[in-house]
Amino acid sequence: MDRRAIKFDWNRARAFLVTAEEGSLSAAARALDMTQPTVGRQVSALEAELGVSLFERTNSGLVLTQSGADLMAQVKAMADAATNLSRMASGHAETVEGIVCISATEMIAAFVLPPIIEKLRKQWPKIEIEIIASSDTSDLSRREADIAIRNYRPTQQELIVKRVKNTSGHLYASKRYIQNLKHRQSPKDLNKAVFLGTDRSNRIISYLNKFGFQLSSSNFPVIVANHFVQWEMVKHGIGIGFMTTDIGDAEFLVEKVLPTFSAFETETWLVAHRELKTSGKLRVVFDCLAAELGEWSE
Predict the structure, then answer these.
(1) Against a cut of 0.85, is the pTM above it?
(2) Which ranges of the chain have pLDDT less than 50?
(3) N or C: which end of the chain has fewer CB within 10 A?
């Protein structure tokens, strides 16, 4: 094969791939940190180069044509190969320096990680840390993060996982809000209380009702996706919310709503790429997190 004859432009293919995944040029532009016209020009250039239409413009957004769908599989394979190449290159790096991106929830990022990162940076000053503070799950396979702290065990075989100590939590409310509760001995005493939710699904309702609560969507008039913001609202007396025991017990503005109720236990896992197991910088950060968070022993 004469590889000099290959003139395929990966930038155009990447613009097409991200546009197809995001559903619009504007969303693709944000994901790629580019302007919308630039993304549009790259997609149009790819269409002209291949001589096919890749998208149909509809009222609901961009829809792949059959040619676009056929090409999508090939471009995805190219993207996966590029990602694997990057991971392999990083995995063979021996120097303990560079950027490591950690994904964690807002509360872990704000209250748990600071002293760990301080200790890590003092010992390894050439390691740079990026933090993604979000309850959304970062896709490690696409390098959205290098290490994740999660409350469930991932099932992907290509990931390294290590269980650390369980996270315990309680329901908390401000002392001012608690004064309005006549009884708080059992879950049924909170049937008419106000709770704060993170979304409009019934997952939290189903979860609590397994423990003897009798709640419905009417108990959740305030929805806050960001847990940090939700905690501030709990402290201001808006309603009842979840918090880990270490953070909740340290806040003098709040109290446990059900003092005698057992803590809610949640598994905590450290997750990283198996391909990056030999990466010096990743190994250092991963081991530091495991030690500080407390490795689990059965």
Answers:
(1) no
(2) 1-3, 5, 91-93, 296-298
(3) C
